[in-house]
Amino acid sequence: MWRKINIPFGYKLILPYVLCLLMAVLTVGLFAYAHSVNSLREKTRENLQGTLRQMRDNIRYRTDDIERITNSLYYNYSLQNALRRYDQGWYSYETMTKTLMPALENLLNYTASNIGLSLYLQNESLPEIFYKAEEQNPLLSTKRYEIYHLSRIQESDWYHMLQFSGTLPGLSRWQQIQRDKADVNISLLQRLDDVQRAKEIGLVRVTVQIRDLLDSVDYRKIGEYSTLVVLDANGRTVLQSSPEGAEGGNPQTTPGRLVLSEPLHGLGWQLQAYIPDSLFDQSAGEVRRMTVLVCLVSALVLAVLGIGVSGYFSRRIQKIVGSLNAFHDGDFHKRIRFKGNDELAQIAVAFNRMGSNMEELIHKNYVADLQKKEAELESLQAQINPHFLYNTLSSINRLAQFGDIDKLHIMVQELAKFYRLSLNRGEILTTVGKEIEHAKAYVAIQCIKYGERLSVYYDIDPEVLEYATVKLILQPLIENALEHAWFGTALGIRLVVEKRDAEIVFKVIDNGVGMNTDTIRQILATEGPRIGYGIRNVDSRIKLHHGSGYGVMIASRSGIGACIQITIPCRM
Fold this sequence. Notes:
The protein is α+β, with helices and mostly antiparallel strands. It folds into 3 domains: about 1-245 and about 255-300, no CATH class; about 330-380, no CATH class; about 385-570, Heat Shock Protein 90 (2-Layer Sandwich), CATH 3.30.565. It has helices at about 10-75, 75-85, 90-110, 155-160, 180-185, 210-215, 280-330, 345-380, 385-400, 405-425, 430-450, 475-485, 515-525, 535-545, and strands at about 115-120, 145-150, 170-175, 185-195, 200-210, 225-230, 235-240, 255-265, 270-275, 430, 455-460, 470, 490-500, 505-510, 550-555, 560-570. Strand 8 and strand 9 form a beta hairpin.
């Protein structure tokens, strides 16, 4: 068996202090460490996000530069007028040399990057200009323009699948077609419209190298060991910038990395940055070491102070404990003497004063408490509603008027029995048998009043009849059912009395209208609306006499009746 260990007060005082101290220091330390690391990480995140936005803006500037080329062709009204003419010979030559070719030449010089400008026309009276197909990407060495008839591509799959978004002007989209994927290029496709006639007259295609478009995507702008990835709309990698030796890896599946992203509007792509957590480890390590050092020093200093304070107070508390033990043994002459005028000295003065008056005060308070409880019991009993007597006398008067002598005799006899049992010679307690007899007398009077509309059934355990109970606990419950439970023209009530272990349980069950949860709560509440006063009176009297563990419970739902249960202890 475990032996009971007596721990001195000083240890009891210092141990919780040390535990609370450690918890406080650890909490503050962890909070400070987490806050510092999070602030560092958040500041770094903001700086890196700003760098990504700058890259996004640079890419947007490049795409806008290409889109301005197509818009220049779209809004060239002299070019549109020339493309409407389907004349052969001199007019066709003049359109090519004086309008179309100079316009395309000027657009090639609009940007410093090598681009390919292709124009697909509905007007087949104009000749085609194009270069022989090459195995190598032509944009690696030069910029050039080409003119095709639109009929060349009208049967191609990519042209049939081509879908523009938006409204006039600007029906355009970025897409990889023909050899773009093999050459690592991308093309801006824009429909060329006849604005006056509102119909398509061709298609403009500007091809640019992806590396020229994304030349601002450089991992060194983010940090060492970082990786920049450009993903298309399907999540495939378009471009990856990472340190040498990291190419070909999948940064999306590498754990322990901070991921930042920015959308590339227009292209429908996304720029993502993967920053390894190792960039934060060095700074986080410095913060961690400093936090641990401060926590250890603080804990040590506070622990030494706590031990000293604990020893001072424990010696004084031991004197108080010795005096209390003397009081426990009945020695009220024990006194405490402390020097000074602090709180413990004041406690000693109050303790000495308490010792001289304790016995007298205990006696006075004990007697006063008993008198108060008896007064409360008598007051609660006196509050039973007397309207039952008035109603019964009125019923007796009516029976006398109608000459119904038999019922009149029964009612007078039961009324006399009812009040004889109610008075009970002024006693608060009665037997369970007399309380049931009292309830039956009340029911007999009500059965004469209601006739066949009221049915009452009894289920009584004979073993409980000699036990003691507070009087007048069943009649208020039956009266409450008769006042509030009617549901139609008939009402059934069942009275159950049984013994459960060391308790006696009374149940008044009806098949009436029932009560909702809010009504039950208001009835049993000590404060609040004055409803169900009879039930509350019964509950209060039982609790005053037997304690808070006993009293009234209500189980009910609207439309299915109610069950009011009283529980009291088995006492003779």
